[in-house]
Amino acid sequence: MERVTREQVAMMPVEFKLNGRTVVGRPDELIIETARRHGISIPHLCYTRTLRPDGNCRACVVEVKGERALAPSCCRYPTQGMEVTTDSARALTSQKMVLELLLADMPEHEYTLNNKVDVWARNLKVGKPRFKSRVQPKADLSHPAMAVNLDACIQCTRCVRACREEQVNDVIGYAGRGDHSKIVFDFDDPMGESTCVACGECVQACPTGALMPARDAGLQAIDKQVDSVCPFCGVGCLLTYHVKENKIQFVTGKDGPSNHGRLCVKGRYGFDYAHHPHRLTKPLIRKEGVGKSADFVVDPGNWSGVFREASWEEALELAASGLKRIKDKDPYALAGFGSAKGSNEEAYLFQKLVRTGFGTNNVDHCTRLCHASSVAALMEGINSGAVSNQVNDVQNAEVIFLIGANPTSNHPVAATWMKNAAKNGVKLIVADPRRNELARHATHFLQFKPDTDVALLNAMIHSIIAEDLVDKKFIADRTSGFEALKENAKNFSPEKMAPVCGVPAQTIREVARLYATSKGSMILWGMGISQHVHGTDNARCLIALTLMTGQIGRPGTGLHPLRGQNNVQGASDSGLIPMVFPDYQRVDHPDANQRFEKLWGMALDKKPGLTVVEIMNAAYDGSIRGVYIMGENPAMSDPDLEHARTAMARLEHLVVQDIFLTETAYLADVVLPATAWPEKEGTVTNTDRMVQLGRRALKAPGEAREDLWI
Question: How far apart are CA 393 and CA 656, in angstroms?
Answer without folding.
Answer: 40
